[in-house]
Amino acid sequence: MRISVVGCGYLGAVHAASLVELGHEVVGVDVDARKIADLRAGRAPFYEPEFAELLTHSVASGRLTFTTDIAAARDCTVHFICVGTPQKHGEYAADLRFVQDAAESLLGVLEPGDVVVGKSTVPVGTAAGLAAMVSEKAPGVRLAWNPEFLREGFAVRDTLHPDRLVYGVPDADGGVVEETLDEVYAPIVARGIPKVVTDYATAEMVKTAANSFLATKISFINAMAELCEATGADVKQLADAIGYDDRIGRKFLNAGLGFGGGCLPKDIRAFMARAGELGADQALTFLREVDNINMRRRIRMVELAREVCDGSLLGKRVAVLGAAFKPDSDDIRDSPALNVAAQLQLQGAVVRVTDPAAIENSRRQWPQLDYADSAEEAAERADAVLVLTEWKQYRALDPVAFGQVVAQKRVLDGRNALSRKAWTEAGWTYRALGRRAS
Ligand code: UDX
After folding, report:
1. Is 163 among the domain residues?
2. N or C terminus of the chain with fewer C-beta within 10 Å?
């Protein structure tokens, strides 16, 4: 099939290259000329394992092209909308400007029989509105909503090997749209991956409900961590023990600094805002608490740093290992690690941040912080070391050798990712959220 992908950010670029891998010819369209130049040259504009190789390979095959000119989408029969839906400034709701612009830009190239497929995360009701516009302005064109569930760091794998496919299809001609999407995802469909074919509203809600559930799970265990701190219990063992119950499951029960990134925080907020518009805000008031618990962890981390620095951060040298919102990513959007680093600095600490992939992005957003290229450099003569993103490099640090570079052997494990035993045996004061001091 000839397919266009409008929006070549994180989601769109990975989706476009993955569609080539599935056997299609794809044109990626974006308004950002610099991004397009990078992609055209086979250069990944962000860090994502497996993506660079997939991109180079797809571009070299001649079946993946990139352009800023929407006219190139004219001979495509399926058009994916993969643009961002950031949080609006000063409010919780999602900003749908880019989705609207993408849909309008497609109007000039659509032919009867084409299918427009939304993948962006949108407030429930958006697809119905777009479908009405498309059927009025481009008769014979159908719209589908097909949310994605990719995780950063696993984006290629999640796209090519999803655990489910969700198709939101129109009431009329739903079967035709389903067939088209089955053709797009033929190799995945052939593997018998579960598929849910439903209406627009359900498809839109699947995504926000899934992200809300994940955020709730993380905040649940972080609330337990607060209680553990109050009682001397151990949140890691608690998570292991409740996680053995397969109705609960151990995944997403890692207590620590909480969730950040470009999805979970903004999606739960947009969901609350939309529920309010629909007169169903009470149904989601618990998400406000989920958000609160999450933000409190950052404050607690700063307090803990102050505690281990003998009650004052003024002039203390603090090393922050990790700036990305999670490992295997250079994404710093709403990064808990950078948020803590900035708070420490504002409270008088001398902060040096390091990260295997996110320093460049961090420097752009937080130029006032000091950056180092390695954990050792960041930790030189440090009074405390904070591990705030659990990159494997940091999990693998040798506490004995690392102890040689710091001024004070104090480590704060913000992600419960280090071996308490190994670090305490090497003479470090080990502190973690939700666990007793040792
Ligand atoms: C998330 C969803 O997982 C994905 O399905 C959706 O498509 C987009 O949003 P992503 O933002 O890439 O993906 O990251 P995810 O792996 O979900 O982690 C989100 C945040 O939660 C990270 O900051 C991570 O450190 C944190 N987290 C995750 C925890 O604090 N504890 C956990 O147990 C798991």
Report:
1. yes
2. C
Closest atom of ligand 1 relative to the 415 alpha carbon = 30
Distance 170 CA to ligand 1 centre (A): 31
Ligand 1, atom 33: closest residue by C-alpha: 252
CATH number of the domain that residue 356 is part of: 3.40.50.720
CA–CA gap between residue 388 and residue 400 (Å, rounded): 20
How many angstroms is it from 273 CA to the middle of ligand 1? 21
Question: What residues make up the domain containing 386?
Answer: 213-432
pLDDT in tens, 267-295: 999 999 999 999 999 999 999 999 999 99
User: For residues 48 and 14, is the Cβ–Cβ distance under 8 A?
Assistant: yes
The distance from CA 149 to its chain's CA centroid, rounded to whole angstroms, is: 10
> Is residue 263 flagged as an active site residue?
yes
| CB-CB contact of 289 with 347 (8 Å) | no
Pair (222, 340) in one structural domain: yes
At residue 307, what is the residue type? E
Asked if residue 369 has pLDDT above 90, the reply is yes
